[in-house]
Amino acid sequence: MKFLASASAVRRLLAYLDEIGLDYRSADFPHIDRAIVASRRPLLVSARLIVDLLEASARSTGWDDFGLRYGQWLNLRGLDIISLAWQEAGSIAEWYALAQRYVHLENNSLQYSLLRKRNTAVLIHSITPAFQSSSTQSMQWMLTLTARVFREVVSPDSVPVSVEFMQAAPADSARFREFFRCPIRFGCARNALEVKRREFEQELPGHNPEMMDFLGRYLLEQAQKSPEEIEEVVARIILSELALGRTDIDLVANRLGMSTRSLQRQLKARGTGYADILKSVRLSILQGQRGLRPRLRLGQLADLLGFSDTTAVSRFIRNASPSNQGSTRNDMTEPPEGSLQ
Question: What contacts 54, CB < 8 A, 6 or more positions away?
């Protein structure tokens, strides 16, 4: 599968690099075609390019919090159409639902998922496992933008209940604390903002039902013009739901607006099945975890892969790694607490 993103995302990042006096043409940065940089047409570029640019920028500046700084600098009203929908939405929940469904049109390496609790909502931001090991700055940028949307449309004083980052704790987290103004945890199994549910669902004064209807129809039309293969769509939905422990085929079929039997028939016609795709997604997540620091503990990995307990994830890892038969220890998980390294 090719991971593509809007070229406008690259142009915005290059504008920020110019603002801070960083030359993207230096050897520290991946190659950027000048035609793409100069063009104002709605081109697509490799989503990997954006991820790599952010990481290269962090290395060149020495800023562990580069993604956070970039997210603070961006003009919220100068983003792509899905990001702009928050200005017209009846609630942040309505905007987030639109983003969940159509974010792949702007960047198909990204996924949004949502967990509603009694008093809070957890907004989970994910990236394809293929980019996981180099997504630190990308996730900082995404969570920062989402937090800024709350402050723009709910209240300038709006703060998350908590923030979770998969990345290791930076040497200096002062800017994180200053911006988010809430408990921040690093080395987690997901990248997420937990927010007050009443703020997430409250009616917004700028609601424009006619514009939201137009945006919904426009995005649907764009999605129909660029159809994905059914197995790619299923894999994307599974990836967005796994961390919530939701792996049921019925859920995926419902997200696709079809019956479970219809989905099974379509997958069979493509020479695959739901269980095969689920296994493939889990394997890709495991592969994406290799080399990451801090390493996840088995309990965290079970949550990430959508398993209900560590026994199930241990069995899956063992079966997925023939060379590790007889042991669940590998380079993706930390040993149990209290054990010898």
Answer: 13, 66, 67, 70, 137, 138, 141
